[in-house]
């Protein structure tokens, strides 16, 4: 399993900024920070006629904008870390309540964002001024009754469940009575308006100081809200963090790694805040139109608030991202991390980002495609000094070939060719060796190229895998069973047979538990219960068409399904934050034949405590959870488990 350092987690977080999964946060963040900035500029320009703006004020404003971005990032990080710990089961006692908590935060926070927007538009300050100018209305008990009715009507929706809302409503009514809302309404609402202004921006009863750093609680709260309403997708490093935490149960390490990842993700947000600060000069020159600018800024924030409160923030991800962009963003993280870890040389980065060169590990399978435009693909892998030994050799295997017999060449660290193969030796159904027992004599970066002449307007798919050689060379007429078992499969999954023989297992979400039943509707309109699939080994996958890592693993799932469906293996893939047409188009694009369904309103994701995609569980014929993974799970990890569970191990 990949060892994740704090520095690596931090860098992976920075690289994740361009992920489609982060896209929903960017316009929301910019909307909030630009709203603050626009309001600040409006105050500065309003006061410019009476007191000039000094250089110190400009520097202070810049620093305060940066402080507010830090408060936002800290709020985001606090929820991100807690949800990560719940997802991995490190603090599983709260797993069942995590979605309820995030729903409440999203709804209450969405309403707060709408209030931010109304405030930045100047609507709330205008209402407050009007009330202060009309004391009879401010002192009227009818104002208290009207506000009470509206709030009591909203609270049951905001707190999701009536049983939770009831004590909140009771506390709200007690607060009104004790605070004097009925006895002295004018004094009570005057204090409340002042407190609201201090929390959300600054005290407007005074001449506003645009350089005031007040309202940091509001920025922190906004970070909490956006984190609760966001669904991250799991890249290679984030997935390794979650899986390590899940297996080890080490809360301290998990907190440090998740915090580093989240803070790394926050660095581009801080830089964005500094770029926004440069816009202040432009806004000052447009001061004649400042009211319109404030209205647009506040209106956009209201739109974001509606998305958050309705649970549709993630819909921005599917709107703003495409499959190609998802693939590119995943490659950026994968290639950059590979470079940092020494798996890629600097001169290889351009080819890696472009998709012409991919980092690959020993025993890792990777899907590829050749076409008339791309007739050569390359892969690079690292052999370090600890792994090299006398007689160390590798085989290159090809699978899922489509009407091609390519030429494969293995190059050493110095660029010289070590071995070339163009004859396919079948060793298993649809699996071939093309290079066998190629000796690696020195540590360093090794490169494998695969090329073929592809006719115009055609494409040819394949899967490549580099494995440590057993030393035995297979002839054209020989076959052998694949005895390779992935590190993850061997690292503590336990005996599937032993798990299957446990009597009366508990229903739950951990390995060895009975998987809870649920009902979904497939994209074909059929109703499926998980219990209907008992008697088969089920791969339950939580994914989304907008999720780059999900796109990476789907072709391998299809390959496993094609090979083992007749042996009692099936796949149920639940798409979240997607439309029916999105999933149908994805199915057609990748030629998927296993069962796809929409998890409407995230019902099953919430039931299973899944907060990030992709996530997968392997469930045996008796409904027992054998294995779970956060992030991409490969064919090499799943195949030995599927073989054992279906009784096809050989």
UniProtKB/TrEMBL annotation:
<feature type="transmembrane region" description="Helical">
    <location>
        <begin position="140"/>
        <end position="158"/>
    </location>
</feature>
<dbReference type="InterPro" id="IPR050553">
    <property type="entry name" value="Thioredoxin_ResA/DsbE_sf"/>
</dbReference>
<feature type="transmembrane region" description="Helical">
    <location>
        <begin position="164"/>
        <end position="183"/>
    </location>
</feature>
<keyword id="KW-0472">Membrane</keyword>
<feature type="transmembrane region" description="Helical">
    <location>
        <begin position="70"/>
        <end position="92"/>
    </location>
</feature>
<dbReference type="InterPro" id="IPR017937">
    <property type="entry name" value="Thioredoxin_CS"/>
</dbReference>
<dbReference type="Pfam" id="PF00578">
    <property type="entry name" value="AhpC-TSA"/>
</dbReference>
<feature type="transmembrane region" description="Helical">
    <location>
        <begin position="292"/>
        <end position="311"/>
    </location>
</feature>
<dbReference type="GO" id="GO:0016209">
    <property type="term" value="F:antioxidant activity"/>
</dbReference>
<feature type="transmembrane region" description="Helical">
    <location>
        <begin position="6"/>
        <end position="30"/>
    </location>
</feature>
<dbReference type="GO" id="GO:0016491">
    <property type="term" value="F:oxidoreductase activity"/>
</dbReference>
<feature type="transmembrane region" description="Helical">
    <location>
        <begin position="104"/>
        <end position="128"/>
    </location>
</feature>
<feature type="transmembrane region" description="Helical">
    <location>
        <begin position="220"/>
        <end position="242"/>
    </location>
</feature>
<dbReference type="InterPro" id="IPR000866">
    <property type="entry name" value="AhpC/TSA"/>
</dbReference>
<feature type="transmembrane region" description="Helical">
    <location>
        <begin position="254"/>
        <end position="276"/>
    </location>
</feature>
<dbReference type="InterPro" id="IPR036249">
    <property type="entry name" value="Thioredoxin-like_sf"/>
</dbReference>
<protein>
    <submittedName>
        <fullName>Redoxin domain-containing protein</fullName>
    </submittedName>
</protein>
<keyword id="KW-0812">Transmembrane</keyword>
<dbReference type="InterPro" id="IPR013766">
    <property type="entry name" value="Thioredoxin_domain"/>
</dbReference>
<keyword id="KW-1133">Transmembrane helix</keyword>
<feature type="domain" description="Thioredoxin">
    <location>
        <begin position="509"/>
        <end position="647"/>
    </location>
</feature>
